[in-house]
Each structure stands twice: as structure tokens, then as C-alpha cells.
Write a structure and sequence with these properties.
The chain has 170 residues and is α/β, with parallel strands linked by helices. The chain contains 5 helices and 6 strands.
Length: 170
Amino acid sequence: MSRPKAGRLYLARHCEPEPAYRGPYNVMPGPPLSSGGRAMAGSLGAAFDGLAVADWVSSSFERAKETAEILAHGRKVRTDRHWNEKAPGETPQEVSARVGRWLVEHTPVEERTIAVVAHGATTDAAIAILSPDAFARATLREEGCILGMGETWLVEWREGILTAIGPAGL
């Protein structure tokens, strides 16, 4: 008997950015990680070690790229603009549309694990698209996002059907 095909998608929010950064957070490149953010990413990276992530994807913004590179431990990280921070003047619907396009093209329908490191607006959009019920039940952090910095949600599929979504517990 063959095993059902399963896919996993880890949605991670970048770790703590440098608080002394004086430029805009939502314009490239944005702030790098703080020393605390790098330490946070190092701890989270240890949890990812045994997960056999096949593809690492990151926002193009510095804090997300740096978080992903630490988590990936030297494996290739591909940046993708679909996961970038909400741009000045961009509506939540526009953020959802671009994240939705990525999900349609890349959602794992085979036995493959993908990890995405992005921002609160884009990870929230993904959760809302994949499971409006999970999004409605989720508690928002003080910064107005479901995922706090350095937190991860896991999305699982079997045979192309969403079977689980929620905090990854990493």
C-alpha cells in the first residue's frame, strides 16, 4: 500500500529587527536583524534542523533574508517578492492577491517541505487564504499580527487536501 502524498509549508515571521534602524521598515532593504534577532533565529534554526526542508523561500527584505539564511544553515534561500513587506499604499487585498498567487503556484501537493520566512502582513494573508476559520480563531499579537517575531505556523496537506494548520510548536 502506498503512502498518501503529503506536503508541508512552514510559515515563519522574521526575527527581531535592529531597533536603531532609521530608515522605513516597509521600503527595501529595511532593517537588518538585531543581535537579539540573530540569537532568536539561531535558536529557531536548531528546531528546523531535523525537518528536511526541501525549499527555503524568503521575502527580499533584509530582516527576512537574514532570518532565513540563519534557519537554513547554509542551504540555498530563494527570495520571492510575493512575500515582501506590505508596500507603502498597498492594500491588504493587494497583499492577499500576491500571496495567493504564490500559494497557487507553490503549495506542496507532493511529499515536500517548504519553509517561507516573511512578514506579519504576508503570513497573516496566507493563513487567511488557507483557512479562514484558523485565521478567525487566532489571537493577534500586540503588533497586530498572528505570528510574533520568530514564530512559525505549520500547514499540512494530504492528497492535495488541507489537513492541518496552526502553530508549529518549534
